[in-house]
Structure formats: structure tokens, C-alpha cells
Amino acid sequence: TMKNPMVQAASLLEKFLFLVNVRPLLAGSREEPPPAPGYYDTSCFKRGDLLEVPRTLFVHFGIYLGENRVAHLMPDILPAITGDRQQIQQVVTNKRLILGVITKTASIRVDTVEDFAYGGSILVNHMDRLFEDQVLGSEEAARRAEKLVGATAYSLLWNNCEHFVTYCRYGAPVSFQTDKFCETVKMIIRDQRSVLASMLVGLASIVCLGLAPCTTLPTIFIPFFLWMAG
């Protein structure tokens, strides 16, 4: 039976997003220890605050719970294979994270601000301006986050760290960075010439630059399927 083109497109787009995000994650070297406690001034954070850590190609989000604790959603394979809380609570390595993305498993965990931000700069409640009167009370946001702590499903498109924090603080799971990326791709490929150009660039990358097909093939097929689905 033929699959729905939109479902195929979504699946391919999710794989492409994974390839886009995995490189900066590896560059962040989560195998190295995070900054020492006290690296961040937590006196400016309030319980229920939404924390953002901008990275090169994506943003990581969490909800501040007070006392140097942050609840955040992280892809992680361990909750699917063990119930050992002590082992799961250890800092998520690149291998655990990547396997979590591939198997679509994750956990909403509580870490220190240092473990959460990993040396990145932190923005506080930066998204409030986008939701105006939808901001829930700080205590309500924190309680929602605490209630969801534990294993959960993961999807780059439908259930990522941004969906988690927007549900907690604004009452509705939304991911602006995913939506923006999808809309940009759709806008580009509505023109058949752009589709053809994308495919040719992908093929040229394989032939001329020697790039791995697993990295460049999504640039060939994703535009085609999204164009067909649009």
C-alpha cells in the first residue's frame, strides 16, 4: 500500500532535522564535564521561568524549578532499556542522545543549571512576548514541569524540548523553530525549479565533494516529497 505523501514527507523532514542538529550536538562535546557549580548566577532566576540556551543551529529550553534545578526534555535511550534512576540521572552523553533521537525516546529530567546550559548563555522568559496574555502563573508552570518528569516519547517535529516548555508556561505545546524551518523549506520548494536545483546540488555534493550519501540524500528527496505533499 502507498503511504500518505505528507506522512512520508514528515518522516523525511524529521530525519533531515536530525542530521542538521546532530553535528552541533557533537561539537558541543557533552562528553566533557559541564562548568563547575556557581558558574551561573541563579539569583536572577525565579521558579517557573522559561530558560533558553541558544546554540549554533537550534535552541535548548527548560523550566527553572528553583534551587539551581531545571526541568528539560532530552532525547535519551536509557529510559527505554533500564529503570536505574541513578544511571539515568547521569549527564546525557552524545551516544545516549543520538540513540534517543533515532529510537524516539526521551526523558524529562531535572538537572543543575550548569548541566542544562553547558556553558551557553541563558535567556529568561524571552518567549513571553510572543504569547502576551497566555502566560500562566509561575507556580503553575513549575508544577506542570514537575508533574511531567520521567520517560516520554520524542520527536524533532512533534515533541521536543520547546513543545515541553511552551506547554508548561503557556498551556499549549508549540515549537517555533521547527515551524519556521518547515515553512522555509516549503516556501523554497514550491517552485519546481528550486526542487530541481536542490536535487542537483545534492547529487553534485556526492559526486564532486565526496560527501556521505546518508547526509546528502535527504537534501535530494525531502524537497521532492514536500513539494508533492504541498
From TrEMBL:
Catalytic machinery residues: C161 (acyl-thioester intermediate)
Major location (coarse): cytoplasm
Bilayer disposition of the protein: Single-pass membrane protein
Gene3D superfamilies with a match to the protein in the record: endopeptidase domain like (from Nostoc punctiforme)
GO biological process, one term: visual perception
Membrane-traversing stretches: 195-228
Function: Transfers the acyl group from the sn-1 position of phosphatidylcholine to all-trans retinol, producing all-trans retinyl esters. Retinyl esters are storage forms of vitamin A. LRAT plays a critical role in vision. It provides the all-trans retinyl ester substrates for the isomerohydrolase which processes the esters into 11-cis-retinol in the retinal pigment epithelium; due to a membrane-associated alcohol dehydrogenase, 11 cis-retinol is oxidized and converted into 11-cis-retinaldehyde which is the chromophore for rhodopsin and the cone photopigments.
This protein's name: Lecithin retinol acyltransferase
Annotated source species: Semnornis frantzii
Gene: Lrat
